[in-house]
Amino acid sequence: MDKKLLMRGSQVIGETAIRAGCRFYAGYPITPQNELPEFMSGAMADLEDGTFIQAESELAAINMVLGASMAGARAMTSSSSPGISLKQEGISFLAASELPAVIVNTMRGGPGLGNIAPSQGDYFQATRGGGHGDYRTIVLAPAHGQELADLTEKAFEYADRYRTPVMILADGMMGQMMEPVVLPDPINLAELPPKPWVLDGADGRPGRLIKSLILNTMEMEEHNWKLARKYEIISREIAAAETYMTEDARFVVIAYGTAARIAKGGIKRAREMGLKVGLLRPVTLYPFPERVIREMSRSVKDFLVFEMNTGQMLDDVKLSLEGRSTVHFYGRPGGVVSTPDEIAKVISSLYYRQHLEED
Amino acid sequence: MKKTVFAGFGGQGVLMMGYVFAVAAMRDGREVTYLPAYGAEMRGGTANCTVVVSDEEIFSPVASSPDFAVIMNKPSLLKYEGVMKEGGTILLNSNHVSRELTRDDLTAIRIPAVDIARKLGSERIINMIMLGAFVAHTNTTSLDSIMNGLSEIVKGKKAGIMKLNRKGLDEGAEYILKGDLR
Amino acid sequence: MEKVVFKRPKYMKKAPFHYCPGCGHSIIHRLMAEVIEELGIGEKTIGVPPAGCAVLAYDYFDIDMGEAPHGRGAALATGVKRILPDRIVFSYQGDGDIAAIGTAETIHAANRGENITVIFVNNSCYGMTGGQMAPTTLLGQNSTTTPGGRDKDRDGAPIDLSEMLAITRGAVYIERTAVNSIKNIRKTKKAITKAFKVQMAGLGFSLIEILSPCPTNWKMSPVDACKWIDEDVMQTFPLKVIKDETG
């Protein structure tokens, strides 16, 4: 039998996190991601060195992660939109203190309590830092089961490498859906690079300090620039996007996550109608793969941004294009999941309206 | 690409049907997605899931216009009849759903799953009977694949229970193959 | 022959305290450094300073220190301790930090019986932000947000956080002490020592609430501030062992 397993998205994230060396998880119940803490409770109990805590709040959970990260653990928390808002305090402190951690946001409809259907309403919150202060969070946007595994593994790697919080931006559908997945092999924790900054008791060395308070303005400024330089390096090194049928495309849809897989279906149907359409799917939302989009604007004059919100990534696409091409938008907020046929219709009507069928 | 909805009351093994089918199709080497209803949609005792099986990449896992529906109770028929793909097929547990279809483009296949289950001595295998009938009618996978999928999912289950499940599958399939659809 | 009668504790850095004249933090810091040295745990202790006046505690302790967001000390310390159960972990928190914004984190850490030690410095006001009403501000006490004095109907009564924590099942040792006299300072040191020993023995959650003078915000001389603790603060917050389940 091959190594493929039919697994629920939440479980894929959890199982991969354990294999990637996650040994600390704290969280608080919220739909639609309860399967993840439920899975982690069992998985951590099976490990000799695993810790699972059902925290009293999202605030407590992210601050427990802050502590576990200071102590050197690969640590994770997860929630869904309203809970992620509460976690922003701790995410800002993680970024400021340059601590690695992985945060999973299984997005639901909003604002407020909204609903529990799949949505992409938290794009701004995720990619603009989310909490207070001048910082960014690496944001990874899986679109299918296998990528949940691949990107969870990467999330822990990036968090450690850049000492910064990494967010996995999924949605309610991805968390619940089962798809065939091949899980990565477990890593050997002892082989990970040492962390010469952890707080584990000043035995034979001077005391260490992890903090975010920097009262001296010049020092604070330098710290802000240090973080900014780090984000520049991150942008250069990890920005990623997938393209689909873009080689000869005259019209390109830009979408991520669940919206991207639906869009892919729409593009396939549009191709069957003879339209030269392709897909560009950002895999990293921060850093945003702006270079790929800019390069594509040499041959593509019309882009369609499709999101399950009222237009958020739209801003990043426009910033990337700097006016070089026309940007259209189609959005379905509120937890509505479009059908590929619906996207195909949107594509074809824009395609003909822009006279792209003419040579 | 074929989309199938499995729907009924909680406790009828509806999610299990879909899950087993999805695992079987995956082991057949096909692309597959399994999407259960979750959260508030599950309250009120109804359960449903959508399984998409395809030879190429699956875009939407959602049950927009399913090709097949396996319907275990009346509320589920009301919910799904209207969204079925034109020319689609609904397999009905006729002991619980006797209503006629309102759409004439759809095919209804009625299986007295409760009667068959009673004859076999366990009402717990109603879902396997329906699944057997579904496989026999649609040919989307084989009964052997279903059995392998089942063993993979319920590791460590007693041989007796597995035998009973196999019997349920066989009887469900047999009912279709006999063409005795009344 | 010279005899050393007073010296800087081993785990205090060579740095002058920035605290106001008459502030209790410097005394409490010193006591803690002495206890850490005496118990021989300086190489395995991790401190969690709060937001508030004592955030700069990390400038004085020569041990590993990790700063917590306002009120989250107990949650952060939980994370550290669970990963490193053989280390000694303490959080150091003020009254606004622990008894207002961090109430939930504190109660639940105590209730889970987290094997950590909390040093709760009660000066009955928000010191760092300029003397606003704290949950521990006494009835009738003036603060910058209780003009005319704290009024029960308008502002609510002072909160007995330590007593509240004592009824949680995970709390093992809770004592209220003060640093307004030599006698009380000595008792405080004993209490801190016991709290750390509770943790070293793996017994569970320990907390020492320390009544501490804030002459600046109370607008008193240091001497009067110490007297006021005796005469007024202790009426609301009496010194005692609130819970002791160490056997």
In CATH, the architecture of chain B is 3-Layer(aba) Sandwich
Number of strands of chain C: 7
Work out the largest interface and the residue count of each chain.
A-C, 41 and 36 residues
The CATH level-2 architecture of chain C is identified as: 3-Layer(aba) Sandwich
pLDDT < 50 runs, ≥5 residues of chain C: none
Share in helix of chain B: 40-55%
* Strand tally of chain B: 6
- Into which percent range does the helicity of residues of chain C fall? 25-40%
Radius of gyration of chain B: 15 Å
- Output the CATH class name of chain C: Alpha Beta
Count of helical stretches of chain C: 9
Order of helices and strands of chain C: HEEHEHHEHHEHEHHE
Radius of gyration of chain C: 17 Å
Specify the structural class of chain C.
alpha/beta
Overall average residue pLDDT of chain C: 97
Shape of chain C: globular
User: Order of SSEs of chain B, N→C?
Assistant: EHEEEHEEHHHH
Task: Write a structural description.
The complex is a heterotrimer of chains A (359), B (182) and C (247). In chain A, helix 10 packs across helix 11 (313-321). Chain A folds into 2 domains: 5-238, Rossmann fold (3-Layer(aba) Sandwich), CATH 3.40.50.970; 241-353, Rossmann fold, CATH 3.40.50. In chain A, helix 9 (257-272) links the parallel strand 11 and strand 12 (277-282). Chain A has helices at residues 9-19, 35-46, 58-70, 81-96, 123-127, 145-162, 172-176, 217-238, 257-272, 290-296, 313-321, 340-353, and strands at residues 5-8, 22-27, 51-54, 74-79, 101-107, 138-140, 165-171, 178-181, 209-210, 241-244, 251-254, 277-282, 284-286, 302-307, 326-331. Chain A has 12 helices and 15 strands. Chain B has a 6-stranded mixed sheet, sandwiched between helices. Chain B has 6 helices and 6 strands; from the N terminus they run βαβββαββαααα. Chain B has one domain (2-177): Pyruvate-ferredoxin Oxidoreductase, domain 3 (3-Layer(aba) Sandwich). In chain C, 36% of the residues lie in helices and 16% in strands. In chain C, strands 2-1-3-4-6-5-7 form a 7-stranded mixed sheet, with helices on both faces. The longest helix of chain C is centred in the last third of the chain and has 19 residues, at 182-200. Chains A and C meet through strand 2, helix 3, helix 4 and strand 9 of A and strand 1, strand 2, helix 2 and helix 4 of C. Strand 9 (209-210) of chain A pairs parallel with strand 2 of chain C, so a sheet runs across the interface.
